[in-house]
Design goal:
Chain lengths: 392, 359
């Protein structure tokens, strides 16, 4: 066993910390609280932050050098993301484009596609959203029905996508669409589609938080050019699946760092309201701290095994269930321990200064649904890890 | 970075598993539990002594194998619910090795053989986190006072007794201990309450005594966490096997999603315990500053996790899971014992919080 970072990794961590201290004007929670901002200007805060990260060479750092890479490993990526979370840095607008579409283009895309799309994706001049889920195809993604039909050399896309995160601000969408009705997996292809065109109707989808960061998008004969097909016809499912496994290490330390920051905020709230020394309160706070540290242990284990070149174990489904359900547990507890103050919106007078608890509480309900619901993860564990029998 | 065991640790794991599967299978555990008054197989412990297992916690030059190897052994023992005072015994050996007193050295040599049991007498009726507040006194060469839940105390040849004056070593008096059995829900345990009025030797005082006891608590908690992982891992294997073989409504019951999701939750708890316990063992082995913190994190997590896995293992077995004949109860009971000793859940939560990065 060896759970130490190497001296290079430690140096990188220090470098990132120093860079953040110098470049991050203030935590994102403070931006959200600033009355001068609205949803659009917060997107600009995030866009500017992405540009700074890109200028410093931190985006796509694991990619080939010509596409912005610097020979970084998954451990470096995990370090970068955890330090950004610890500092409450803004999430970048292309947080889906860069880890998902970037590798898709590098591995499966054409040279022209890479040249056309990667630089603007990194610089946030073009914002990307993901068109995978549909109203009738969530956990069972392969049942998707949005179709792409040939139109001369090109394709026309018809159908509906939903839960398109950042859709309302996106310029482009990467879409899984059906090109063969008969072949469930082999009949799916991967297209790049501009949003600003006739035949694409992007609408904001208001979430339980009251914001519309998600979108739903209606395609009615939208044009997808032949040169914007990624890979070959029918390769879409395979491409999508390799992408989902590509980034398995990078978030391992992010959630524990993010939750640690939030728990620190909870502790200061309890110090200020005078309750932290109550034994029952301290025990509940301590139990949250213990669970977060156990989660970090799982993350370190995954990361260490990736670093040692070992095949994926049962960890990734376990981690997904753990972080998403613990986020609910933690925010449930925080809102209870803080009393009504915990329910104040960040923009409200007298809200906690360091954590947007009301948002976190509501947002935590999404984590157990997106990116493979808890139920799907439990199916995966039971079937693929425990090898429990399948009903005949 | 690497989480998985190194080659020699992996070898220790496979050889320990082989030894225990052969010499201490669950049928033997049952026989010991039901028929052997001492609660452990003396020949088996003598064999462990011969093979060097009893010295696992000593320094390397004295035959120690290090905290990771210790966790490996404890996890394997958990898998077969290995009966008896192994954890107390090896932590007592470690404690004796830290005391310069000559009688400590003599007992250390004997205990290392695996045929002379030295156990701990720590708990009292009133819970005192601080050993210095003990109601048990060492005065005029005698230990006086009452200790409770002394593990396997009746058959111990010597006991390490925490007193207000320090750590005392008391050899078994010729007339035996003045002890009363305390029968807990775990039929494999042999706890006693002992009223001491016996000659003894103070082998550590003041800060030295505190540090010896602290080390014993910390290593005991690490061992208990690893053992609970092994207990959970095997409980899950048994449950999956049972639900695969058992059919109802014309299908293996393990194909029902309700049971599959339960089993998935059990694996989440168990694998998280593995991560936490071995991460803590690694920290202890490397003298990391946060080793004590990480051990408390592991122990605080392992108890409730183990309770869940042990309980659900009975549930997945259905009616037969509630019978004496089937094994799940043996696992749940051992977990319940380990959860309460080497620091309770509450104690470890507090100890972790005190050192947590969130404060």
């Amino acid at each position: 066993m060896d759970l130490h970072f190497t001296s290079e990794q430690k140096a990188f961590q220090l470098e990132v910390q120093e860079w953040i201290a110098k470049n991050l004007e203030r935590p994102f929670t403070e931006e959200v609280k600033d009355p001068k901002h609205d949803a659009d200007s917060l997107v600009e805060v995030r866009r500017n932050w992405q540009r700074k990260l890109n200028d410093a060479g931190y985006l796509g750092q694991r990619w080939p050098v010509e596409w912005g890479g610097r020979g970084a490993t998954e451990v470096d990526e995990a370090i970068l993301l955890s330090e950004l979370a610890r500092a409450d840095a803004p999430n970048i607008p292309n947080f889906l484009g860069i880890p998902l579409l970037g590798p898709a283009l590098i591995i499966h895309g054409s040279e022209e596609q890479r040249r056309r799309f990667i630089p603007k994706m990194l610089s946030a001049d073009e914002i990307w959203c993901q068109g995978f889920s549909e109203p009738g195809a969530g956990s069972d993604l392969a049942s998707l029905r949005t179709k792409a039909e040939p139109d001369g050399d090109d394709f026309r896309i018809t159908g509906q996508k939903v839960w398109t995160t950042f859709g309302p601000w996106a310029d482009w969408i990467f879409v899984l669409a059906r090109t063969d009705e008969e072949d469930r997996h082999g009949g799916i292809s991967f297209f790049l589609v501009p949003i600003d065109q006739e035949g694409v109707d992007m609408r904001g989808l208001k979430q339980v938080t009251g914001e519309a960061e998600f979108g739903e998008v209606f395609f009615d004969g939208a044009l997808a050019k032949r040169e914007h097909l990624v890979g070959k016809l029918g390769e879409g499912w395979r491409i999508a699946m390799t992408l989902l496994g590509f980034e398995r290490g990078s978030s391992t330390l992010l959630n524990p760092a993010d939750y640690e920051r939030q728990l620190r905020g909870l502790a200061s709230g309890l110090r200020e309201n005078g309750e932290i020394d109550r034994p029952d309160v301290a025990e509940r706070l301590g139990w949250l701290a213990v669970q977060n540290e156990v989660m970090r242990g799982n993350g370190l284990r995954t990361l260490a095994n990736i670093d040692a070149g070992m095949p994926p174990g049962p960890e990734s489904s376990i981690e997904k269930i753990f972080w998403s359900e613990f986020h609910q547990t933690m925010t449930d507890e925080a809102l209870d321990l803080l009393g009504p103050q915990g329910q104040l919106k960040a923009t409200s007078s007298h809200a906690r200064p360091d954590v947007d608890w009301a948002y976190q509480y509501l947002w935590s309900r999404a984590g157990t649904i997106y990116s493979g619901s808890s139920e799907i993860q439990r199916n995966i564990i039971a079937k693929r890890v425990l090898r429990m029998p399948t009903a005949k | 970075m690497r989480f998985e065991l190194d080659d020699d640790q992996a070898l220790l794991r496979s050889s320990t598993r082989e030894l225990l599967e052969k010499e201490a299978a669950l049928a033997d555990t049952r026989a010991v539990m039901e028929e052997v008054p001492e609660g452990f197989d003396k020949n088996m412990y003598a064999q462990l002594g011969e093979l060097g297992y009893m010295n696992v916690l000593l320094s390397e030059e004295d035959g120690g194998l290090g905290p990771i190897a210790f966790a490996v052994i404890m996890a394997e023992m958990g898998r077969v619910a290995f009966p008896g005072p192994f954890l107390e015994w090896v932590t007592a050996i470690r404690a004796l090795s830290e005391c310069p007193d000559t009688s400590a050295k003599e007992w250390l040599a004997k205990a290392s053989q695996g045929d002379t049991l030295v156990s701990f007498a720590l708990a009292e009726d009133v819970h005192n986190a601080d050993p210095a507040e003990s109601q048990v006194a060492f005065e005029g060469g005698r230990v006086r006072g009452t200790k409770v839940f002394v593990p396997f105390g009746e058959h111990a040849q010597a006991l390490l007794v925490s007193t207000a004056q320090g750590l005392a070593l008391v050899a078994r008096p010729g007339t035996g201990w003045n002890s009363t059995p305390l029968e807990t829900l775990d039929h494999a345990q042999r706890f006693v309450r002992i009223e001491f009025d016996d000659e003894g030797t103070l082998i550590a005082e003041g800060e030295k005594a505190a540090s010896v006891l602290d080390n014993a608590r910390r290593l005991g908690a690490l061992g208990a966490s690893a053992a609970m992982f092994g207990l959970m891992e095997r409980s899950i294997e048994n449950s999956v096997q049972y639900t695969t073989e058992r059919e109802a409504f014309g299908k293996p019951i393990g194909s029902f999603q309700a049971l599959q999701h339960r089993a998935a939750d059990m694996l989440l708890k168990s694998e998280s315990t593995r991560s936490a316990a071995f991460r803590a063992a690694w920290a202890e082995e490397n003298g990391e500053e946060d080793a004590d913190y990480l051990i408390s994190v592991a122990k605080a997590w392992a108890g409730p996790a183990g309770r869940y896995v042990g309980g659900q293992s009975i549930q997945l077995h259905g009616g037969v899971g509630y019978t004496w004949e089937y094994d799940p109860h043996i696992y749940l009971k051992r977990i319940k014992t380990l959860e309460q000793f080497h620091g309770s859940n509450r104690w470890h939560i507090q100890n972790a919080l005190r050192q947590s990065p969130i404060l």
